[in-house]
Amino acid sequence: YDVAADLPAAAGLLVEKEVKALSKATENPERPFTVVLGGSKVSDKLGVIENLLDKANRLVIGGGMVFTFLKAKGYEVGTSLLEEDQLEKVKGYIETAEKNGVELVLPTDVVVNAGFPAGDTPVAPEVVAADAIPADKMGLDIGPESQKLFHDKIVDSKTVVWNGPMGVFEVPEFAAGTKAVAQGLVDATAVGAFTIVGGGDSASAVRNLGFPEDGFSHISTGGGASLEFLEGKELPGLKVLE
């Protein structure tokens, strides 16, 4: 940082490509602009939601974080991942989305199991309505109805930013939701949409599930830094280059 402050400095080609792609999606997106968020914890995505809630036309939520949204809507979520301390904040997001005319898309059905899959323990996936999760079951993916819903919402977009898997994609029985979202981005890209796969787990998922990298407009390599960019934060490494 100090060296860059004292001597001539410039961004490398990869950084330039990353910043251009993320800026194009968040600063002046072609609309409809859809943000797809997943991953395990809603607390990891608070900044992204807060920054994009007044920029996006549509917010699609899946992954472990969705159960805090479902609980905030009054649904029982069984033994699914739940962040009780974020419930009030999530209720506020739901109200803000409604007030701002942002379409909030949540799963209508989920794939549940008796617990988190561990080792060689057999899994017994079962599809249930999102508002009827049994008390002893854990949600581990979005269901078939939601897979089609999410796919169709993505294809009906001109700009899509996706960060976070829809389920435990490493286990084949709980990978279909993430596949459906990835396919949605590929299909949207094919008809002219600008699509970004956020770094980290999402980028790993598209590679592990066999999707071609050229099926998307941009696959971020930024990891945590790209998440901070989507949160609207000033990145020190970019600030010093100004």
Automatic annotation (TrEMBL):
Pfam families: PGK
GO molecular function, one term: ADP binding
Top enzyme category: transferase
GO BP annotation list: gluconeogenesis; glycolytic process
Keyword Transport: no
Metabolic or biological pathway: Carbohydrate degradation; glycolysis; pyruvate from D-glyceraldehyde 3-phosphate: step 2/5
Keywords from the named record: ATP-binding, Glycolysis, Kinase, Nucleotide-binding, Transferase
SUPFAM superfamilies noted in UniProt: Phosphoglycerate kinase (SSF53748)
Catalysed reactions listed for this entry: (2R)-3-phosphoglycerate + ATP = (2R)-3-phospho-glyceroyl phosphate + ADP
Enzyme Commission numbers on file: 2.7.2.3
Cellular component GO terms, alphabetical: cytosol
Family assignment from sequence similarity: Belongs to the phosphoglycerate kinase family.
Protein name (database record): Phosphoglycerate kinase
Source organism of this protein record: Bifidobacterium longum
